[in-house]
Amino acid sequence: MFSRTNIRIENARLYPPEVVDRLYTALSHGAELHSYESRMNFYDVNYEGHTYFIYVSPANEKVTLIATWVQKRASADGKSGEHSRWWQRIAEHILAA
User: Fold this and answer.
1) DSSP string covering 64-77, please?
2) pLDDT at residue 91 in the model
3) Residues 6+ apart with CB under 8 A from 94
4) CA 25, CA 30: separation in Å to the nearest integer?
5) Where are the alpha helices (DSSP H) in 1-97?
6) Residue 14 region, left (φ>0) first, then alpha (ψ -120 to 50), else beta?
7) CB 15 within 8 A of CB 32
8) Domains plus CATH for the chain?
């Protein structure tokens, strides 16, 4: 994976410093990284009600923050599959740019 002792975060989308600080805190406190089978080195990090979509460079272990959003509460009808479909379209668009 990557070393959590010397975390370097690249803020590619120029998010406010508070967002980068929260991601740094999440990573340094051992937040779990959820990998993508189809995209090596891309991960979701869920921490304190936020999700961060990141890329970890295998060459230098630098973390690139690609996107972040506030997590939605689970709906009562359990339509969690909808999140996967729309997020997949957004991720594909960002990665194609």
Assistant:
1) EEEEEEEPPPPPTT
2) 66
3) 66, 67
4) 9
5) 17-28, 81-96
6) left
7) no
8) 9-96 (3.30.2310)
Token reading at 83: 């999140």
Cβ-contact 64, 8 below 8 angstroms: no
Please, are residues 67 and 94 in contact by the beta-carbon 8 Å criterion?
yes
Confirm if 44 and 68 have CB atoms less than 8 A apart. no
What is the β-pairing status of strands 63-70 and 50-56?
antiparallel
pTM: predicted TM-score of the whole model, two decimal places: 0.71
Q: What is the pLDDT along the chain (97 residues), one digit of tens a residue?
A: 566 778 999 998 999 999 999 999 999 999 999 998 899 999 999 999 999 999 999 999 999 999 999 988 765 554 555 555 666 666 666 666 5
CA–CA separation, 28 vs 49, rounded Å? Answer: 17
Is the distance from CB of 9 to CB of 63 less than 8 angstroms?
yes
17 token code pair = 């410093």
